[in-house]
Amino acid sequence: MADQADTYDAMSNGADTTPQIGLITQYVKDLSFENPNAPAVYQWQTQPNIDVQFNIGADQVAEDVHEVALKIDVKATTSDGTAFAVELVYAGLFGMRNVPEDQIQPFMLAEAPRLLFPFARRILSDAVRDGGFPPLLLDPIDFQALYVQQAQASAQLTEAPAGNA
C-alpha cells in the first residue's frame, strides 16, 4: 500500500520519473554512390564480391537528445575493377528522459541501430538499383549480439595482465 501511495504522490506533484525513450526523427546524413567504371561495368560477366562494413556512432546533442548514426560502406569489386561503391550515414535523434546511466549505452549501440537499420537498408537498396545494378538486399543484423560481443571483448582487454616493460 505504501508503494502505491508513493507512486501516487510522485505523479500528483507533477514529477515524471518513469524512463522514456522516443524516436524524434530519422534522416540521411550522408549518401554517396560511385560507379567508377560505367559504362564498361555493365558488360562484365563475373559476379562482384560484396564487402559490407558497419560502424555505429552515438553523440549527445542536447540535454535529453542523442543522435545515433549508422554508417554502412559497401564496395562491389570483380577482377575487372570496382563495380560500385556506396556509403550511407543514416541517423536518428532519440529523446531520453529518466533513463538509468547504465542503460543508455546498450540502447544507443544495440536497440537504436536495430530501429534504424530497415530504413537504411531500403535506402542502400534503392541507391544501388538506381545506379543500374540489381538491388542490394543486406541481411538482417543482430545488433544486440554484436554489442554483447564487443562488451565482452572490451572486458577481456581490461582484465588482461599488463606485459613486462
How would you portray this structure in words?
The N and C termini lie far apart (62 Å). The chain contains 3 helices and 4 strands. It is 35% helix and 36% strand. The protein is elongated, with a radius of gyration of 22 Å. Strands 1-4-3-2 form a 4-stranded antiparallel sheet, covered by helices on one side. The protein is of the alpha+beta class and 165 residues long.
Distance linking N and C termini: 62 Å
Whole-number mean pLDDT: 88
Low-confidence stretches: none
Number of strands: 4
Strand proportion: 35-45%
How large is the radius of gyration?
Answer: 22 Å
The chain-level structural class is alpha+beta
Protein topology:
Blueprint lengths: L1 H11 L7 E15 L14 E14 L2 E14 L2 E17 L3 H30 L12 H17 L6
Antiparallel strand pairs: 1-4, 2-3, 3-4
Helix pairs in contact: 2-3
Task: Briefly say what this structure is.
It is built from three helices and four strands; from the N terminus they run αββββαα. It has helices at residues 2-12, 101-130, 143-159, and strands spanning 20-34, 49-62, 65-78, 81-97.
